[in-house]
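Appendix C reproduces, verbatim, an entry submitted by the partner laboratory led by Prof. M.T., so that reviewers can inspect both the input and the predicted structure.
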Amino acid sequence: MNPNKQLIEFVNSLPVGPRYTPIYAKGVVYGVNNIISKGKNPHEHASSRHFAPSDVALCLDKEPDKFVAIGLYTGIASQGLVILDVDANLATLLDKWGESLQDAPKIISTKVNAAKYVFRVPEDQRSQVKGFGLSHTGLGYEVLWGKQGVIAGTYPGSSDGLYPPGSYTLESGDFSHIPEAPAWLLAEMREKYAQNAPTQATGLVKNRKGLDFSGRTSDEIAEIIRDCLTVLPLYGRGSEDDWWIVGAMIAEELPNDLGLTLWSAWSAEDPDYEEDWKKGDPCADKWPSIIGKAGQPGNAGLGSLIKLADKYDPERQRFQNTSRETVNQVESSQVQRFQQVAMTFDELKSRAKSVMQIDNPAEQNYAMHRLAIESGFREAEKVERLMVDQLTYEKNTDAVTLDQLLDMNFERNYLIPDLLATPSVILMYGSGGDGKSMAAWTLAKHVATGKPFKIRGKNVPVQKGGVLILNGDQPLIQVQEQLEEVDIPRGADITIRSDFQLQRYMYFVKQIEQYKPKLVIIDSLIGCSGGKSFDENKSDFATPLYWLTRNNGNAFPATTIIVIHHANKAGQFRGTTAVRDAVDEVISLKKPDDKQIEQVGPNTRILTFEKSRTGRGGSQLVMRQEADLTYCLEDWTPEVDNSDTSPASVHDRVLMKLRARAEAGQAAMTVQQLYDSQLCGSSKPAIRKSVQRHLKKKLIAAAGLAHDPKTGKVSQTYIGIIERDVTRVVVGKSCPPSQKTSSGTGCDVGQGGGQKGVVLSEVPPISSHGPDQGEIEDKFSSESGLSHQDPLQQQESALGGQLGTPIRAREELTQDPLQLFARLAQGLDLGAPNE
C-alpha cells in the first residue's frame, strides 16, 4: 500500500487555483546539482510550473519514497493567500488575537506552542503588502508572502533537534473556506512594504530592447522592478542561472546601487540560501560582472522582467497605480512604434529560420523571444507557430481531384506489423505507477534493437531504427532506472531530450529532422504541456495533438509517435474528449482483474486498444515482468477463435492459414485456394478483403504468381510473414529448381535446367467457381498492385514454373523481411538450402 494514501486523499480535497508543490523527503538528492533535501524543499519545477492538486497527487503516488508532503505557495500568484507561521509563543499570540484566528485553517506539527494559519489578502491590497521573517516583530512568528509553506505530510523535526519528526496535520478549519486576513496582520504587512519603498537614485541607462523606458525617472523604474519582484517565486537551490538572469534584467535598467539593493532584497528572501548570506552578500559579489555587460545589444531588460512577472501575475495585481500607469503609457507608445516600423514577412521568415539553426536552446529561446518583440508578436510561441504554418504550406500540394488522390502511391508502413503504424500518433494512458512508461520503453527496446514482436501468437519482424524520447515528466535519474529495468543494451539508438514542450512545434520539427527517429515517445502529455496543463479539460488542450497527427509525414518526416497520458482518480481517461479525437490510436493500460490474472498471471498489465484507425480496436497486449526482472510485451489477441463465425473471424483464419503454411515450409496460396480451404470458409470477397488488409499491415507478403493450366489465368499467391527466432526469417523450404516450362505465361526459363529461379511448391490446381472467377482474380491482382506486369515479377519469377513445383526460401536475416519476399517473387538465388 502506498504510504502516502491518506496524504493523497487530502491533496485531492484541496481547491483548484492556488499554487501547490510536492515536498521532497529529508535526505533525498534531487535536481541537476544533486541537492540534499532538508525535508521542506519543494519540487525543482514548482517555481516555473503551476502544480494543481492532481499534479501533486501524481508525484506522491508515483514516487512515495521521494515526496512525502505538500507545500502551499503564497502571494499574488497564488490567489492572494498568506501564511501566518507561528514558530513560538503561540499562547501569547492567541491571548492577543485569538478570536481573529479561529476560522482560518490551522496546521500543527510535533513542535510545541507553534502553528500555521492560512488567510487571504483582499485583492485591492495585494500590491501594497509584504511578508517578513521572525526578526521583524520579535514575537515568534513570520508572515509568508511569495514563499511556500508546508501544510500537510511529513514533518522532518526541528533543526535544533528539540522536536522529533512527525506530521503536519490540519487541526481545524477548511481550505475550501479561507477567510480574509485580519486587520492587524494586514497592517503589519503594509508597514513592512512601506519600509522597503525605493529611494531616489541616479544612473539610469536606456533600455535597448522591447519596451522603451528612456526618459523615465529612476524612481519610476525602481517601483516597477520592485512590483515585479514581489510575484517572482524564490527559485531555491540549483537555480543560479535564473537568479543571475533576474539580476541582469535589473542591471540593464538600474546598473547602480539602487539596482543592487532591489536584487539583493529579493534574493535574501530565499531560505535555501540563508547560509550563503551569513558569509556575505552573494549579489554584491556578482554585481560588477553583471553591470559590466549591461547596455550590450540583445540584453534582456525591464520589458522581459515585466513579461516574466506576468507569467505569475497575468492580471498585474502587483502594480501600484503609479507604476501601472507608467507601464501602460510605455506599452501604448511601443504599439505605435511597431505600427510605424513594421517588419516585413520575408524579413521575419528569414530571421526566424536563422534562429532555428542555433544549437544552444537557451540562446535560441532568447533570440526567438527578442524577434517576437521586435516583430510585434510579443510571444515567441506565436512566431514558431507562424513558421510551422509556413513550412506546412511549402510542403503542401495543390488541390487534387478524387481520381488524382486515388492514383497517388500512398503506403502505410509498420514498425511492428499490425501494431505500430507509420505515420501515426498513439495515446497510451493509465494510472500513476501502473507502468505506462515501462510499456513505452519496452516498445522502444523492440524498435531500437530490432527484436521480433509476437503478434497473434507468432513472432513477426520489427523495423529496427532510432528512438527519440522527449521527456517532460520525470528526472533523468528516473528515466535511467526505468531503461535499465527494461534491459535496453548499451549502444542502442536511443536519444533522450528533457524539458520538451508540445507547443514548440518548430523545435519538434528540428528534432525529427536531426535524429530521424522511427519511434518518438512523449512522456507525458501533461508534463510536456507547460503552463496549459491545468486547462486539460478545455478542447484547445488537444491542439498540439491535432497538429502532430495532421502534420506527421508532411511538416516533418513520417514517424510513429507514442504520447503517454495520465488516467484520472477512477482510472478512466482524463481530460477533454478532444484528446481522444485528435490521435490515431488510444490504448488504456490497467492492472488485470481477477479473471484476467488467471489467464495472464501476476505482475502483468493489460493494454487495450480503445480506439484504432488501423483496425486494432478491442484487441489487447499483455506486459509482464519476467523472472530476471525485465519486461516483455506481446499481443494478447488470440490468433483465431474456433467458436467465432463472424466476418472478423474469417480475417483471423486467413492469417492463421498463411502463417501455418510458412512455418511448415509449404507453398504460398491464392485467394481461390484460401476459399477452397475448409479452415477459412466464408465468401471469396471476404477472403480477398482480409488478404488486402493483412498485406497493408505487413503480416503477409505476395510470394509470386501461379498459373492455372485449366483456365489459363494467372493469380497472385500469398504467404505469412513470421520469424522463428531473432536471427532467421522462414518463408518455406528449398527444393531443386524445376526444368519444366509453364505455358501461357509469357515467360520462359528454358528446358535445360541451367536457369535457377524461385518457383511454387506443390498445391492443388486452382478450381473454378464460375465464369467470372478469372476476372475476379485478375481484378484483385490489379487492386493489390501485383499483376503479371508488376516490376517485381521479372523473367526469373514464379511464372517460369508450374503448379506443383516447390519454393526455395531460407535466408539469414541480413535484410528487411519484405525485401526478402520481393527477392523470392523475382526468383533471385538465395543460396544453398540449410536443412
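The chain has five domains: 5-195, 218-340, 345-395, 413-635, 647-826. Additional entries are available on request from the coordinating office.
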